[in-house]
Amino acid sequence: MKFLVVDDSATMRRIVVNSLQRIGFTDTVEAGDGQEALARFDSSVQFVITDWNMPNMSGTDFTRALRARPDGANVPVLMVTARSVKEDILTAMEAGVNNYIVKPFTPQVLKEKIDALLPAAAA
Q1: Mean pLDDT, the chain, as a whole number?
Q2: What angle do CA 56, 58, 63 make, to 5 degrees?
Q3: Is 56 helix (H, G, I), strand (E, B) or coil?
Q4: 54 with 33: CB under 8 angstroms?
Q5: 56-62: long-range contacts at Cβ-Cβ below 8 A with a sequence spacing of 24 or more?
Q6: Which CA distances in Å does 8 have to 72, 75, 93, 111?
Q7: Across-strand partners of 30?
Q8: CA 62 → CA 18, 23, 67, 97, distances in Å?
């Protein structure tokens, strides 16, 4: 399964990629913001993990743009962000995010969230 990891922090992208590797997912592509992510997204990407707060295009704007594309309409999107208030979570879900993790997180939590969305990825 190929993952697209979107975060403006190279350190955070490395943490997410390393966590993915620890739970058995090694095929990843990275992007530093939503615009770059849209450019790097193609039909081989089966799962997206995105931050919210990024320059140029936020994670919610990226998710809305991804959902508007035929090849991105059904790809599972997991948001990993420091934003934790209920209204933010609702805004992310309304934008098309499938699930949400508040930073910091453990590889186990990441695995649980991905596993919960895998039936959607297989569809």
Answers
A1: 94
A2: 125
A3: coil
A4: yes
A5: 57/33, 58/34, 59/6, 59/34, 59/92, 59/97, 60/91, 60/92, 60/95, 60/97, 61/34, 61/95, 62/6, 62/33, 62/34, 62/35, 62/37, 62/38
A6: 21, 21, 21, 22
A7: 5
A8: 23, 26, 9, 10
In sequence order, the 6+-apart residues with CB closer than 8 A to the CB of 94 are none
Taking a C-beta distance cutoff of 8 angstroms, is the pair 61, 34 a contact? yes
Structural contact between residues 117 and 78, judged by C-beta atoms closer than 8 angstroms: yes
Handedness of CA 37, 41, 44, 47 (dihedral sign): positive
Q: What is the pTM of this model?
A: 0.94
Measured from the Cβ of residue 78, the count of other Cβ atoms closer than 10 Å reads: 21
> What's the pLDDT tens digit per position in 2-44?
999 999 999 999 999 999 999 999 999 999 999 999 999 999 9
Judged on CB neighbours under 10 Å (0-12, 13-18, 19+), 12 is middle
Domains of the chain by start residue, with CATH: 2-122 (3.40.50.2300)
